[in-house]
Amino acid sequence: MAIRKLAHPSLTVTDNRTGNTYELPITHNSVLATDIKKIKAQAGTNNDRPEDETDQGLRVYDPAYMNTAVVQSRITYINGQEGILRYRGYPIEQLVKKSNFLESAYLLMYGELPTTSQYSQWTDEIMHHTYIHSDIEAMFKSFRYDSHPMSMLTSAFATMGAFAPEANPSLQGQKLFTNAASGDLESLKILDKQILRIIGKAPTLAAASYRMRQGRPFNRPAQGLSYTGNFLYLLDNLSGYEYRPHPVLEKALDALFIIHADHEVNCSTATVLQVGSSLVDPYSVVSAGCAALYGPSHGGASESAIRMLMEIGSPENVPGFMAKVEKRERVLVGFGHRVYKNVDPRSTAIRELAEEVFAVTGRNKLLDTALTLAQYARESEFMRSRNLYPNVDFYSGLIYQAMGFPLDFYPVLFAVPRCVGWLAHWRQQMLNPSGVKIWRPRQLYLGEGERQYVEASERQANADSTVFDAPVEVSHGGDSKRNNLATYKDERGEIFKPRL
Ligand SMILES: CC(C)(COP(=O)(O)OP(=O)(O)OC[C@H]1O[C@@H](n2cnc3c(N)ncnc32)[C@H](O)[C@@H]1OP(=O)(O)O)[C@@H](O)C(=O)NCCC(=O)NCCS
């Protein structure tokens, strides 16, 4: 391929509807979607509908964001083809080996590895912000004992917002955080304080959701332990003295936290930025991030991977399961990634860690099943031709399982460190010198054109309608059955029968 060096790289396109030619500047190997909007044609000349808005400019259709850059970021770089993940330029493998979670968190948030004094101030501040208001503990107690911990955590972050009215732009003015972009120190102080609070309290909230499930009283944050050491204390401490977590488990959790701290504009981070663009408070932002993370295609995958391994049972059942995957009857959870079409570098970093943990916790049948499955997947033409390799969730699930965490706690173990990534992106968004524009995508409207209201007496059921075109009949519990046989009086004293 001949390479031309251009001072002003650009793309020349011809609109065959009009014969017009446009030159679109290329910056960082991208064109601006708003430049494409300049490409206009006369409406109604190419079988287009009024709803296509042809004369308002060409649109970019990108369902599921397959090729759309929505931010300019300096935080994390991923190269999916080559299996690269770097935080602020540092390869993840180096950070896992040499750094620790809070140091990497500082790096993600502020752009550089901290000096010794910056690090000690940062860790002191975070560990100082680990306590939660006792009324938030009461909120946890209002949940059913068997509630999913992610439901509790998502609610807890939103609730925390109610305890920080001074950090709420709806109450304090919508520029509360964005003023920081122009160097307003007060605004920056409020912004950074919420970051300390959220990172500090995340393990406390996560542990509260866990202790609720166990029916155990909540522990209060401990002094003098590391971030993950304190987290293990909050989760596990009973009534003994001088609790110290096992160093291998503490270190493994810390490394897993580094690996999970950020991953560019993934589903939950995109959610965080979408919600953040409305200038809502950071607690609501993080709560929205949790909601996105909870889904089985995202942070729920490590839990689903273990459920799948439990279903497979033992290594001899692996070939049968793989046959179903190759017939596309099943998905191999913990394999494949939207961005990594090569090895997921996080899974490489985690594999060694897994061995260290298994040496302490012992191996189990599930692990043998997992390793057999990985072996079969490596040799499968179906998997190789689609570039499907084990992702981070495959190994993290195995480590969590070996460490004895319940399955539904896995997404929580992902959400706690991911708060750092969410907040680093949120901070970058608030500090954008060009201000924060609300994220408002468009759609391609394919529905009915304009039509006139039809009176109820003149409406007829559509003979072509399918099961999707009206509500289906839903099932009701036994109490509805009994209620249907009962009679009630309404507010006017008249007798009515429930209609269900
Ligand atoms: C992560 C994931 C959602 C990415 O999806 P995606 O980038 O949209 O990839 P696609 O759905 O386009 O998949 C491409 C092909 O690989 C297949 N495929 C993708 N992931 C697969 C998996 N885990 N098992 C079996 N087949 C898979 C698809 O069926 C598709 O096959 P086709 O081309 O014959 O139709 C997907 O790989 C997946 O569901 N993985 C399992 C869940 C998981 O581990 N998620 C955690 C991610 S960190």
From TrEMBL:
The keyword Acyltransferase does not apply. The active site is at H337, D393. Keywords: Transferase, Tricarboxylic acid cycle. GO terms for biological process: monocarboxylic acid metabolic process; tricarboxylic acid cycle. Pfam families: Citrate_synt (PF00285). Pathway: Carbohydrate metabolism. Belongs to the citrate synthase family. This is Citrate synthase.
